Amino acid sequence: MDIKKVGVVGAGTMGNGIAQVFAVAGFEVLLTDISAAALERATNTISGSLDRLIKKDKMTADQKAAAMARISATTEFGALADADLLVEAALENEEFKVKLFGQLDGIAKPEAILASNTSSISISRIAAATKRPEKVIGMHFFNPVPLLELVELVNGLRTAPETYASLEAVVRAIGKSPVKVRNSPGFVVNRMLCPMINEAVFVLAEGVASAEEIDAAMKLGANHPIGPLALCDLIGLDVQLAVMNVLHHSLRESKYRPAPLLVEMVEAGYLGRKTKRGFYSYD
Ligand code: NAD
Questions:
Q1: In this structure, are 166 and 215 located in the same domain?
Q2: 181 torsion bin: left (phi>0), alpha (psi -120 to 50), beta (else)
Q3: Is residue 1 scored above 80 in pLDDT?
Q4: Active site residues
Q5: Measured from the CB, is residue 235 less than 6 Å from ligand 1?
Q6: For the chain, does the N or the C end have fewer beta carbons within 10 angstroms?
Q7: Same domain, 105 and 138
Q8: Which residue's C-alpha comes closest to atom 29 of ligand 1?
Q9: Alpha carbons 140 and 154: distance in angstroms, whole number
Q10: Which tens digit of pLDDT belongs to each residue from 150-189?
């Protein structure tokens, strides 16, 4: 399928990065969100991110202007009707996504592919909420989207090989590398990464070491580019908790139980960078 216009649903941490990489690669992008403020924030974030690329001589001012001109932002979801591909990056909640995909199925043109950036939720379950399960696929980007090269392409039980082939070409066209994954809780990366972050929260709560020491240990001892707790702040503690809940409920093993401190911090509203407070403060 010839994909030219991409609708991004949800303009938060991930949605703005996804819109940016598509626009820079020459795709028309329609960025949607229920919140006009989120759309404004996203547009400013993209503009600032492209300014940084100009400063590093990786982009010219003209290229930035052209990329920004390819992005339109709206709270009117009906505008998604002429998109060839929809990439959903809204809340990590199964009931929510099932309902949303039912709605998007009613708006998108019949030949459009519906992709979800879900971190952990079953693509087969999301696909079953639509009348086009063969055109539903997981397109899992990593944070920060403009920097990280991987996109996990997740095949649900009913995803058609043509859908996968179309998105494999799209992933390469935006300069990223696809990895083919079968639908399974947390897919590949989060199945391993999120339990590691969760364990770091247990280590912190048990007083084994401070947040700074835990992060320094994993950077210096395991050669990780960022410590697990700083990474959790970047991901969002609510998103990390949502992934652990999916792993715990679907794989039914106690090793995936969310750390109580993580649960309490989410309850307290300490969600990481996006609320300026997580394991670290960002004021
Ligand atoms: P976020 O909280 O930063 O942003 C979510 C956005 O969705 C908000 O702007 C919100 O207004 C919007 N939204 C809520 N309801 C909506 C609706 N009905 N229609 C359209 N927009 C709606 O979340 P995020 O971190 O960007 O995560 C988005 C998705 O991407 C989740 O499924 C998450 O699991 C996944 N993901 C997140 C990360 C990460 O590191 N944060 C990485 C990979 C995948």
A1: no
A2: beta
A3: no
A4: 119, 140, 152, 190
A5: yes
A6: C
A7: yes
A8: 89
A9: 8
A10: 999 999 999 999 999 999 999 999 999 999 999 999 999 9
